[in-house]
Amino acid sequence: MNISIVGTGYVGLVSGTCFSEMGNHVWCIDIDQKKIDSLKNGKIPIYEPGLEEMVLRNHREGRLDFTTDYAEAVPSSDICFIAVGTPPGEDGSADTRYVLAAAESIARNMCGYTIVVDKSTVPVGTSDKVREVIQKVLDERTDSQGIEFDVVSNPEFLKEGVAVNDFLKPDRVVIGCDNARAEAIMKQLYDQFTLNEHPIICTDTKSAEIIKYAANAMLATRISFMNEIAKLCDKVGGDVRAVQQGIGSDSRIGMPFLHASCGYGGSCFPKDVKELIAVGRRNGIQMRIATAVEDVNNDQKFIISNRIIEKYGEDLSGRTFALWGLSFKPETDDMREAPAITVVTELTKRGAKIKAYDPQAYGMAKHYLAHIPADAISYEPDMWSALNGADELILVTEWKQFRSPDFGKIKSLLKKPVIWDGRNQYDPKVMRANGIELHCIGRGLV
After folding, report:
1. pTM of structure
2. What are the C-alpha distances in Å from 273 to residues 74, 97, 267?
3. How far apart are CA 108 and CA 237, in angstroms?
4. Among the listed residues 45, 54, 55, 49, the one whose alpha carbon sits nearest the alpha carbon of residue 9
């Protein structure tokens, strides 16, 4: 098939590349000329394992092209995906202006029957608005007679760090549409990705839009629930890892997303929980569970800094902390809503200095931590340089290289053998044996 995808961020670039990997011809469209030029020259604007080599191969073999010109891509496309950003507004509502602008540009360049697909995470009812925008443009065109279209909601369920594998081997595909013609074509497109016999779920557009928000809110709820249980464990002397194993072994619950930590971040969970609350408010429904989830997570991001302040007081002048991990999760450079932002901000405004190391996120960090004075934070070339001269270590992101480090070396480089483990990576028994003071989430003080 011939496919156009508007937007070259995580969703658009991964989707377009994976579609081309299956033999389709794909145009990736973006209004950012600099980004398009970089992609044509083999420079990938995001870090996602396995993506770069796939982009280079499919571009080289002529299945994947990049352009800023809708007129170059849309007229020959059977399906046009919209995969642009929907950032939250001040009230938490998702901003759909870029989605509707993309729909308008597609409509101005359509030449025959076209399926327009909402791939972006969009509020309930956006498919109807997209349909209205396209029809309005076609009504204004003098050459639109005979041009037909359908609008489909096809939410993505990609996890940053494993997005390529998630797309190529999805656990389900959701297609929301209103007629059999569009449904058949979309199923034909996705049949090549569902040979693992995982389902293609066909429903109406509004249900498809709700599925995306409900799924992310459910996962965010599990995380926030376990973080509240972790607080209880710290208070009464329990071990949250034992609790996790005890309830996660229940086949009705399962282990995923039951890890206590210093909070979730990224582009999906925070934004989607906010929009779920906002869509409820717009419809006169108080989304009390989603609101509580957001509140718990916002509080959780302060857990490390609050405990450090509780131990040493409000004045942290003269203290230097090594920080391992800046991105909101491993295997990505994404720092949107990352707990590290809160940790660095809270400690440095009280006089502490930070020596930070992350394998991928320095470019993002210098944007999201631009408010931190230059003399308060340094970005170190490796994990050991971050420890050299630091008083204590804070682990924020569980990159693989941090999981089994040389604890003797950690102890020798730090001024004090103290680790603040924001991801419960380290075994208290091992830390005790190595003479390291370990502060966990929900596991007490070692």
Report:
1. 0.88
2. 33, 19, 11
3. 64
4. 45
